[in-house]
Amino acid sequence: MTDSGFTRRDALALGAGMAALGGAGRARAQAPAEVKVALLAPISGPWARQGLLMKMGAEMAIDDINASGGIRSLGGARMRLVVYDAGDSTEKAKNAAQRMVAQEPDLAGGTGAWLSSFTLAVTEVTERAELPWLTLSYADSLTSRGFRYIFQSSPTNDNQAIAVLPTLMALAERATGKKPTRLGLISDSTASPQSFVRPVRATEAAKYGLRIVVDETFTPPLSDATPLIQKVRSARPDFLLFIATNVPDDKLVMEKLNEYGLGQAKLPTIGNGGHMAVPELVQLTSPEILEGLMVCMANWPGKDQEALTRRFVERTKEPWMGHDSIFPYAHMMIFREAMERSGSADRNKVAEAIRGFDIRNEGPALFFPSKRLKYDARGRLEDAQLVTVQWKSGVPQLVDPPSMATAAAYWPKG
Amino acid sequence: MDAQILLENALNACVAGLVIGCIYGLMCVGLSLIFGIMRVVNFAQGDLLMLGAYAAFYLVAGWGLLAFLGLAGPFAAAVLAGPIVFAGAWLIHRWLVSQVSGLRTAGSLDEGHFGQLIVTLGLALILQNGGLILFGSTPRAVRTPLSASAWLVEVGIGDTTIFLNKARVIACLVAIVVVVGLWLLLDRTRLGRALRAAADNPTAATYMGINVDRAHRIAFALGSAVTAIAGGLVASYLSFTPFMGLDFVVIMYAGVVLGGMGSLLGAFWGGVTIGFVQQFSALALPPQLQNAAIFVVFLLIIILRPQGLFGRSADRA
């Protein structure tokens, strides 16, 4: 002991403390000031509107994350969105992905590219770059290639078809007192609708005692729906599955059904995909023509997300928040969660963190219908659940699952 | 298949083919006019159609200038889209197309065709992407209840019914009136004779005191205006984006070649033929083969009658 009372033990403790402080300082110094994530979506071309809706959702999430203190485990690093245009073709989407990985070597991850065929091309590039890629695209082929860095947040098309029929059959039976027996199918020839109708044709229709009385496939875009709807009129199905990929075809078919006396809920019609519940569809047709149309899809903000929807509407002046905006919002929240858990913006660690997720009823899981966030070995979301919205007085209302529903479903009785 | 259903399907295909074919015919006439008089293959024709659709949209829905016309508004707007696009096309020709066409390229090895190809393709890209910046990516339509309703014609055999889509039938009638008006203009007026003279022999026309460059400018603007009217009519029943031209330019070219390159009435009938082929092919073939059927017929015509269905081998406007 010395006169000053400063012992050797005190000196060692001070030294250890200084070292610890120094280490913490270095950790802060190594933490990036900002972390970049990408959105690669069609901002030009025929699907530009979908890309813009995605951008709105992603930007809102980024602002929410930064407003709440950024990535805390990275010293409050702010998230920054970099946007790349997938354009109007698979080739352009792939080129954009190549540009993105070359120009942004410090990306932590990304999301896109809406159309399944674009996502297939983009993920060929992101997989080689070992960049974790979250997607809302539906095609089952996306996660059948043995890729490790793709995470598909939607139920795949074939699973959607399998999931939707029992719900529809039950709804129809409750409303009419009898099971429908005659099914009409109209689908476009692109990958996603075809992967939806394949199991319906092969097994699902027969499983529920349905006879497919009309089954027509068209190449989008339609210039005229007369031949299709003429066949529907002749075949007189009990309900119609109309599986397309773009708003102009939706308008044309819905108006043609009306022209042939089958519209305005006279023939129960069920669609698939976010494009059938966008504001422009009602602006292009009319609330009466869309009345009763049901649309099954992979996500939609329900009654538990009313505050989020309200903020989105105030911010963007869009009439509602839908499928194409909730997904990128959720995906940005997933990246934040992955970086918080891994304490790193390194893409491999982010991917590893996402692979390790099994989150229930909290955090980013709240933005998915099943309220569970766990990707399987292929990158598919386990327990991915389908939701159904129904057009009522010009507004799509979530009607299924009941736990999220903002309105009750009804089966148009004709 | 039940005979009555078959009859109803065939009758409706026939009517729909005729109605849509007339609108296609109007588009083709615009393209044919430009080719027939100027010998310019205009790859931007589909995008001029798009400008017509947007002009009609803004006249009725965007700015609401013609909203007071009620149900007639969309069709009046389609017709008014013609003069608007005429003015724009006049300027496009003055500054761009005239640099690679007309007397300026008369003596050149390729008659300016390479330059025309690049200029019109470039123009198409500028119009598409400029349209995206200006009009946005949201699909638009000139909304009218007529597009989702039909006049029903009972044919007296069981409940066989012909459905006449109201918007398309009116659009078809407007298209026929415009084509007849254009034919009268070219056949019966001094301006028409000047245009035909400039088409037949530009050098001789110059010696006769005809301003060939001006004649070409009028032809380009007129052809663009006619296609723009077709675009305005399409807008009354289809939704569209700045990229709509891509969907129609192939139909236009097929129609013009089917009818006979440079023949005005041939182009109209070429368009009508495409409408029929599109509809009737869907009776027997899956609908995704509709466009394939058009090209099968197209190739057959090219093999069997290279000058086109309704054209003579040296026919010009």
Automatic annotation (TrEMBL), chain A:
GO terms for biological process: amino acid transport. Belongs to the leucine-binding protein family. Keywords: Amino-acid transport, Signal, Transport. It comes from the Bacteria. SUPFAM superfamilies: Periplasmic binding protein-like I. Residues 34-378 form the Leucine-binding protein domain. This is ABC transporter substrate-binding protein. It holds the Pfam family Peripla_BP_6. The keyword Transport applies. Coiled coil: none annotated.
From TrEMBL, chain B:
It is found in: Cell membrane. GO terms for biological process: amino acid transport. Keywords: Amino-acid transport, Cell membrane, Membrane, Transmembrane, Transmembrane helix, Transport. The keyword Cell division does not apply. GO terms for molecular function: transmembrane transporter activity. Its main location: membrane. It is a multi-pass membrane protein. The keyword Cell membrane applies. InterPro entries: ABC_transp_permease, BCAA_transport_permease. The chain crosses the membrane at residues 15-36, 48-69, 75-96, 117-136, 167-186, 218-238, 250-277, 289-308. GO terms for cellular component: plasma membrane. PANTHER family: AMINO ACID ABC TRANSPORTER PERMEASE PROTEIN, BRANCHED-CHAIN AMINO ACID TRANSPORT SYSTEM PERMEASE PROTEIN LIVH. Belongs to the binding-protein-dependent transport system permease family. LivHM subfamily. This is Branched-chain amino acid ABC transporter permease. The lineage of its organism: Bacteria, Pseudomonadati, Pseudomonadota, Alphaproteobacteria, Acetobacterales.
